[in-house]
Amino acid sequence: MNKNQDALFSKIKEAICNSIEYSLVRKNAIKVTTPYLDWMGAPVSIYITEEGHITDGGQTLNQISSLRANEDFEFWPYKIDYFERYNIQQIRGSLDLCYLDSPEGILKYVQGISRLPTFFEAKPISDTEDKFPQTVRRAILDTLINDYPERPRDDPIGWALNLTKPRSIKLDGITIHSDMSPSNKNRLMQIISHANSSTSDKRQHIASKLLDPLLWRRVNPQVEMFAVVYDLSKYPNESQSLLKQEADGIFEMKNEPAKIRVAEAVADA
Amino acid sequence: MGESPKVIEGGPLELTQCPYCSDEDAVNLDAHKVSSDILPNHYADKLHISGYYVEYEGFKIYVKPDGFDYLLMAHQSHSGPFRAADGRKLEDHPHFHELDFFHRINGAPGTRRPVPASLWANMNSAELLEAFLNHYYFSDGRLNAIEMPLKRALQKGLEEFYE
C-alpha cells in the first residue's frame, strides 16, 4: 500500500466508524444506526434491548407483511439457509441475532437484515382487485394464530399460513380450486366476493364457485364445501338459494363469531 | 410532491393489527398503489404507500417506488433531538420525512423533516396516517376518519405461548 492508498483507506475506515451512532428509544432499548442502507435507502437500525438481546424490533417481518409478501416469505425455500448464513433467528415476529460470539457474526446479521426485504416483491392493492378474499385470509390467519385453542406451539405462523393459502386439486384433465387449504382434505373453502359488482357478475361469480365442488363430487362423494361471504343478502335471490342448497355451511363475515367458525372449519380435520 | 391530489387506488386505507406483534397498539398498513401523472412510468407503475410497526420506535409510513429509495415517510417517534423544517429544535416527536433535492449533502439529496401543527406528541397511528394524507394531499376516497383496529384479546390460559 502506498501513501495515497493508505490515506484513502484510513478515510474510508474513519467514515464508516463515524457513521455508527446510538440513541435511546422506547422500552429502555438503544437503537444502533449503521452505515448499511436498507431497501428504502435509509440507514439500517438494530436495537439492543435492556436484557442484552440484539433484535430488529420486528421491522423486517412487518415490512414484508405490509408489502403483502408474508406468504412468499414463509414459503421461501432459502429461508433456513439465509438465516444460518446471516446469523439470524426468528423469535415470533422479530429477527434476532443468533450467535453473539464474534464481531463478524454481528456484521453478518446487520447485512442479512438490510437485504432481506429486497428478495420479496411488493404486492400493492390496486383498483382492479377485489380485496375481500385477501381480507378473509388475513382475518382467519390472525384468528388461527391468536385465538384458535388447538394451534401448535411450534411455528403457529407457518401452520396458519399453510391453512389459509389457496389450494389446487388436479382431477382428470381439470384443476379445481379452493380459496383456502383446510386440513380436512375433502373440504373446499370458497370465498364469495364481488359484493360491489353488477347483479349479473355476482350471479356468474357464485355459479363459478359452485362448479368446483360439483365437479369434484363426481369422483369423490365425501366432498364438503363451505362458503365465506360478507353479507349473503347482497346477492341475487336465486344465487342465495343455490348457495344454500349446495354449500355444507355458509359463514357471513359481517357477524363477528364467523371468524372463529371459519378458523375451525379450516383447522379441524 | 407537487402533484395534487395524489390518488390512492384499491379503496380507502385501513390499519390492520399486525399479525406478528404483541404490542396492543401495533398496526400495519397494507401496501396500496398510488397513481401518478407526474412521475415517469418506471416510478409511477410501482409507486405504493404502506406502513409497518417497529417495537422500539412505533409506526412508520412510507411512499416509495418498488426497488428504489423512499420519497416520503412519516415516523411516530424520533430518537434524539432533531431540527424541523421550520427551524424548530425538537426532541422525540412525530414528524414527516422527505427527500430534499435542493439541499444536497456531498452530492446526494438531503432530508427535511416537516412538523406541521397536525402532528403532536403521543398521537396514535391512525392520527399520524390521517395527518400524513392531509398534509401531502393524498386521496383514497375516504369520507370518515381513519380508525385504529379493534384491540385483540388473547384467550385466557394461553399466554404462555406468547412469552
- Residues in helices of chain B, as a percent range: under 10%
Count structural domains of chain A: 2
Low-confidence stretches of chain B: 154-163
**Proportion of residues in β-strands of chain A:** 15-25%
What is the multimeric organization of the chains shown? heterodimer
- Radius of gyration over C-alpha positions of chain A, nearest whole angstrom: 25 Å
What spatial form of chain A do the alpha-carbon principal axes imply? elongated
- CA-based gyration radius of chain B: 17 Å
How many domains comprise the coordinates of chain B? Answer: 1
Tell me the series of helices and strands of chain A, N- to C-terminal. Answer: HEEEEHHHEEHHHEEEHEHEH
Kindly state the mean pLDDT of chain A as a whole number? 90
The number of helical runs of chain A is: 10
Question: What is the count of helical runs of chain B?
Answer: 2
Largest sheet of chain A: 4 strands, antiparallel
Alpha-carbon distance between the termini of chain A? 69 Å
Helix/strand order of chain B? EEEHEEEEEEEHE
Q: Biggest interface, and residues per chain?
A: A-B, 46 and 46 residues
Q: What can be said about the biggest beta sheet of chain B?
A: 9 strands, mixed
**Beta-strand percent range of chain B:** 25-35%
Shape of chain B: globular
Key phrases:
heterodimer; A: about 270 residues; alpha+beta; 2 domains; four-stranded antiparallel sheet; three-stranded parallel sheet; B: about 160 residues; mainly beta; nine-stranded mixed sheet; two-stranded antiparallel sheet; about 10% helix; about 35% strand; disordered C terminus
List the helices and strands and how they pair.
The complex is a heterodimer of chains A (269) and B (163).
Chain A: H1 3-18, E1 21-24, E2 30-37, E3 43-48, E4 54-55, H2 59-66, H3 70-74, H4 79-85, E5 88-91, E6 94-97, H5 103-115, H6 132-146, H7 156-164, E7 167-170, E8 175-178, E9 187-192, H8 199-219, E10 224-229, H9 237-246, E11 249-252, H10 258-267
Parallel strand pairs in A: 9-10, 10-11
Antiparallel strand pairs in A: 1-2, 2-3, 3-4, 5-6, 7-8
Helix pairs in contact in A: 6-7, 6-10, 8-9
Chain B: E1 6-8, E2 15-17, E3 27-35, H1 41-44, E4 47-54, E5 58-65, E6 72-75, E7 82-83, E8 89-90, E9 95-105, E10 108-112, H2 125-135, E11 138-139
